[in-house]
Amino acid sequence: MLVEALHSGTSSNTILLCDFSTSQMGRLYSFLWTRMDTCREEVAFHFRVNSSIFVPLMDESNLDNIAEGVLLSLDQVYWRDPTGCLGLLKNGASLSDNVPFTDKMFLRALCQIYPNLHYFFVNGCSVQESPDFDGYIKILQNLSRAVQPSEAYKEVIQVLYKWAEDVESERVDSKEISRWKDCLHDWGCSILPTIQDKWVSLHKKFGLVCWCDDVDLGKQFRNCCGVYFLCLHGEGKLGNIRGKDSIPSKVLTLMRAMGVPSLSEVVVREAIYYGLQDSQKILSLINWILPYAQRYLYKMHPEVYCALKDTTFNNPSSQLCLLVVEKVFYRHKLQGCDSVSNKRFECSCVLE
User: Fold this and answer.
1) How does the average pLDDT of the chain come out, rounded?
2) 236 — alpha (psi -120 to 50), left (phi > 0) or beta?
3) Parallel/antiparallel/unpaired status of strands 340-347 and 208-210
4) Least confident of 8-22, 198-212, 257-271
């Protein structure tokens, strides 16, 4: 029986539809488990090179009933999904025509099918405890085809939390982080939920993708075309704008590692002024007082002086443009795009 069991699978490069009962296959795997002490390497090798893990295509209340399913390989299954994405994808994919049939086969965690065989599959056969980065990328790509971000953002955020923990705990090296970054910047990897209820990647064709760290700024730009705020909090409604304090610090670490800017990092002030006046006297005063300011910083704050020495601070007469006006306002503008806020603020001066 053992020899027959070890040759019941197929090559890991093929997908075989078959009819078994879950209880029947569970008994087979339990039998193989009992033989792990005497032929562990033989059993493990068979599962590495053959598709031998039966996964039913549909839930069956009676486990003794014969059900249609597939035999999958080790890299096509996981023991569990702590984020809930697989369960959500299974329900969404059953209603969606956008998810390929072959992908719909891989929507079950083994813990739901064979709950008592964790040691056999994970320790004996080296099934992944949970999906790795590439596994979740595939899951999220299918999820984004099946449902809207408003239906899945809480589960996707759990995936981001998992990645963030891997980065923060240094379980992934810099080379792997760079690979993750390249993947998330790919045009076809639109798996990130935004508060505008749209799936995006970090590719520049989507426009400006950032995370909101300022509620007031977020309200000013949330409806701008080509500007998307990533949803990084799992509480409340998707469209709610929240500040930096609502985002776990480990997720901010992940955002920095992936090259995702905060909203305040890409916002600049644009001056709006009326009543242009002569600025020669003010400019002369600045030119007179600036050497004293330079000398003070050089002696008292050398680090600040070094940071400013290559700017207009060292040669203001040729680079500094000073305007004196009767009234001046500023409004916020996003770098790299034409989006500007409709809200303006009166002030006494603006530095651009």
Assistant:
1) 84
2) left
3) unpaired
4) 8-22
